[in-house]
UniProtKB/TrEMBL annotation:
Gene3D superfamilies: 3.30.70.240
Native source species: Microbispora maris
NCBIfam families: cas_CT1978
Origin: domain of life: Bacteria
Protein name, UniProt field: Type I-E CRISPR-associated endoribonuclease Cas2e
Length: 110
């Protein structure tokens, strides 16, 4: 059964964006939305996560969870998805100052 997927990308190679645009629409640069089967979604995500390079990508799709969706990420980002008793929350990594190691601080965003 097909379901809606949202893929947000930043600084990905052009060929990855081209592959995504074959299956999904791009209403604004780097944001891809569409309705595809789970198999197509997983194949698209495999292609994106394998070739994201220095960019970042986030996939959000319906899932049988308390929130009703799941989040997958690829690439180096300050925001990390963490599991909190079955809820996917976002944790912000601290910016390290030059020459100073800092602890990790976090904030939870809905």
């Amino acid at each position: 059964m097909a379901s809606m997927v949202v893929i947000s990308t930043t600084a990905i190679p052009d060929h990855v964006g081209g592959a995504l645009s074959r299956w999904l629409i791009e209403p604004t640069p780097g944001l891809y939305v569409g309705t595809v089967s789970a198999r197509v979604r997983d194949e698209l995500w495999s292609a994106v996560s394998a070739s994201v390079g220095d960019g970042v990508a986030v996939l959000i799709h319906p899932a049988d969870t308390e929130q009703g969706f799941a989040i997958r990420t690829a690439g180096q980002r300050r925001r990390h998805v963490v599991d909190f008793d079955g809820l996917q929350l976002i944790k912000f990594a601290a910016i390290e100052a030059e020459g100073h190691a800092s602890g990790t601080s976090s904030a939870i965003v809905k």
